[in-house]
Amino acid sequence: MFLFRYAASVGYIGSAGALTVALDTIRESHILDGYDFNFIIRYDNCVEKNAVADAIDMVMNYNADAFIGPTCNAPAIATGVISSVYNLPHYVWGFTTANELANAPRFPTVIIMTPNYFSLALLSVMGHFGWTEFAFIYSGAEDAERCPVYLTDLQKAVFDQPSFTLSFNAMWRNNTDQDMNLILSELKDKARIVVLCSSSAAIKRKLLLLAHDLDMTTDEYVYILSDLGASGYIGGTSSKTNQTAYVWEDQSTPADGRDKDAYSVFKRTLALSDVADDSHTSAAYTEFADRVQQKMRLPPFLCSSECDKANGWKIALFANQLHDAFLMYATVANRTLTAGHSYRDGTYMFNHTAGVYQGYF
């Protein structure tokens, strides 16, 4: 299941080719020799009822052997129940960070490709430093599948670990100086450890500079930058130099001239991320992106001008998870058949998935 929404992260054009990249590895490794694969593609667009309808249709009318997707939390939870009813192997990826998906008694066939313990990782970091009280802030412009879900999981984790206190949480509505300063002013009297959830390097930089101007980046404060898919302190590729841009570097035109201030502020932060700083700028990542693009131009996808880099094509942020999900499914299905079980036995496959796999990253 794919989305037209959130194309930069999980969109069909930027990620579907990862399936046939994985298929090449499956064939080269002689996994499931003698078996053919048919891909049934649906677009749930992160709408729960669409995903449920698609899942039922694929089971009843196409006799699907496994699900890969959806990529959003509510649809993944709903279809996870369906795959459990039919005992089909199910792999979710993308934005599926909800801790509930790790409830094995409820979802005995669902394998999660996305890190879904951010909240516990955050509390572990704070426990290491002896911090117990903190704030959580984010922008209203953030996707509903990212920071709001993270906050919900974090609140549950704090409830389960009463030694921690979430003393303040807030969302600013618009990314204006006025709205962001209002949140910072409210925060100032309530916390010194601040978790900032943002997928935008520009917003991180802006908020921390505003905090600096309010004298909120002294030794009293610690800012923890945390969000799914954020590459640490890498802000992407500079449109000016075509080189790696760091989060403290202003990418706007004209620049505000405050990179030195921003750098001094970011030195007082911690970054909690599921992605290594250099993973999206590595040679392996570039090779993977090129292979995904090439596969999109070939059957069964036959993507034309939309898949040209000259027309703005980019690999989807979580395409590697799709690749790894299919490769993992084929590997475990092969192992399951060897053991004399059905490749449609999702519970058996779930219980025999643990192991080490060679994914793309």
UniProtKB/TrEMBL annotation:
Molecular function GO terms recorded: peptide hormone binding; signaling receptor activity
Subcellular location: Membrane
Gene3D superfamilies per record: 3.40.50.2300
InterPro entries with a match to the protein in the record: ANF_lig-bd_rcpt, ANP_Clearance_Receptor, Peripla_BP_I
Biological process (GO), any one: signal transduction
Domain Receptor ligand binding region residue range list: 16-339
Protein name according to UniProt: ANF_receptor domain-containing protein
